[in-house]
Design a protein that fits this description.
- With 315 residues, this protein is α/β, with parallel strands linked by helices.
- Helices cover 43% and strands 15% of the residues.
- α1 packs parallel to α5, α5 runs antiparallel to α6 and α10 packs across α13.
- The radius of gyration is 21 Å and the shape is globular.
């Protein structure tokens, strides 16, 4: 059984600690048996926090050493101004070195960063602490706008409830969409929440109101297979490229080409999930041109290959 070890460190965030316990304990294999063994690992009895309050203490039959053989190690949120102990940092580094998956929820990213696991990687944390994370650890590429970031072996989530999105994503990655949907129903949550990390946004359909970018978005979506440039999009919108960029930033929150890339990835996922089209035809249909380009963008933004994604989510 896949072992998930959740570290209960000093001043652990109560909700952050409970999220992976609940999600992974409810996840089921196709035969309805539990998919994960969940361990809450604590060095000693620790205090749990909820905002400025400390409503209860946490003790567990599992100690930190019980995380040493875990397949996944999760660090819930802690106080970012409290340095992790050398023992905790060593445990996390050792877990990564032996190939275990390591993830953080909320300010748990500070612990992963202190262990050196986020150097040179994109990561996120609670938006309130994103600037501090970037300042304290300049080698980390901090993105405060996403729900979570999946770097393959190392994952980070934004604040508090975004831990649900991260844990459901891990279940989806491990067991497939059906298992994630079942787990989401059990915790009364949508399997995928809109907003946040680009590859998991449930994009709204472009609107037709001529007063905004709706017609341009609709045209871009209908021409995903074309090699569109900023100049092409600006011409369609009848505005300058500078005005186009400003309107996109104000109304959509991103650039035209980034929106186009996100839509192409979304459409590629839909085709991989619902059709048996060969990879070259999927690539052509969404404007990537070649399977190599599709694989590059898919692996970078979705965290897996198109082939592996189809194997997990087709049908």
């Amino acid at each position: 059984m896949h072992v998930v070890a959740i570290l209960a460190l000093d001043d652990v965030a109560a909700f952050d600690l409970a999220i992976p316990c609940q999600v992974f304990a409810l996840a089921r294999l196709p035969d309805a048996t539990p998919a994960y063994e969940v361990r809450v690992c604590a060095e000693r009895t620790v205090t749990a926090t909820a905002g400025e309050q400390q409503p209860f203490q946490v003790s567990s039959r599992f100690r930190l050493d019980d995380a040493r053989d875990a397949d996944t190690v999760i660090v819930p949120g802690v106080r970012p101004d409290r340095a992790p102990s050398p023992r905790v940092l060593r445990l996390i580094r050792d877990a990564a070195a032996r190939g275990a998956r390591v993830a953080s929820i909320c300010t748990g990213a500070f612990v992963l960063a202190a262990a050196g696991l986020l150097d040179g990687r994109r990561a996120t944390t609670h938006w309130m602490f994103a600037d501090r994370l970037a300042e304290d650890f300049p080698a980390v590429e901090v993105d405060p706008s996403v729900l979570f970031v999946d770097n393959g072996q190392v994952l980070t989530s934004a604040g508090i409830a975004a831990g649900l999105d991260l844990c459901l994503h891990v279940v989806r990655r491990d067991l497939g969409a059906a298992a994630a949907a079942h787990t989401a129903r059990m915790i009364v949550m949508a399997p995928q929440r809109g907003g946040g990390q680009a590859q998991f946004i449930e994009y709204r359909d472009p609107v037709s109101d001529p007063g905004d970018l709706g017609p341009t978005l609709q045209w871009m979506q209908e021409n995903l297979d074309k090699a569109l440039t900023n100049a092409d999009i600006a011409a369609q919108a009848v505005m300058s490229t500078r005005t186009l960029a400003r309107r996109f930033r104000a109304q959509i929150g991103t650039t035209p080409l980034q929106w186009l890339l996100n839509r192409r990835l979304q459409r590629a996922r839909e085709l991989l999930e619902t059709t048996d089209l060969p990879m070259d035809r999927v690539a052509g249909a969404v404007g990537f041109g070649s399977t190599e380009t599709l694989r590059h963008h898919f692996s970078r933004h979705v965290g897996t290959t198109p082939k592996a994604y189809r194997a997990a989510f087709h049908g």
